[in-house]
Write a structure and sequence with these properties.
This protein is α+β, with helices and mostly antiparallel strands. It has one domain (3-90). The chain contains 3 helices and 5 strands. The longest helix is centred in the C-terminal third of the chain and has 19 residues, at 72-90. It starts with a helix and ends in an 11-residue tail after the last helix.
Length: 101
């Protein structure tokens, strides 16, 4: 799928699982606003494609997942929450990231 089709599909769902080639295509046509290394599950990114904000992350099942965000603040809060969970995981808390919620 091209980036427009990926975004169109993602807008209709809570999240969308995309392939690595689709991710690379999306990355090549997007601005990376935030990029944080989770050190556990690759990177979490806030992307902007045209006027659409997208969170992109890699799940523990090695799936590339994207979700459309309403605002930059909402996206930043999700990234902060994810990073807090990953930090606790390093400490052996036994917690998990709920990617599919």
């Amino acid at each position: 799928m091209n980036p427009e089709a990926i975004i169109s599909s993602a807008k209709k769902k809570k999240y969308l699982i995309i392939s690595e080639p689709e991710l690379n295509e999306l990355l090549s046509h997007s601005n990376i606003i935030i990029e944080e290394n989770t050190y556990i599950s690759d990177k979490i990114r806030l992307l902007q494609f045209e006027d659409v904000l997208i969170i992109q992350e890699k799940t523990t099942k090695n799936e590339y997942l994207i979700r459309v965000m309403k605002t930059k603040k909402e996206a930043e809060e999700l990234i902060k929450h994810r990073l807090e969970i990953y930090d606790k995981m390093w400490d052996g808390c036994g917690c998990k990231v709920e990617y599919y919620e």
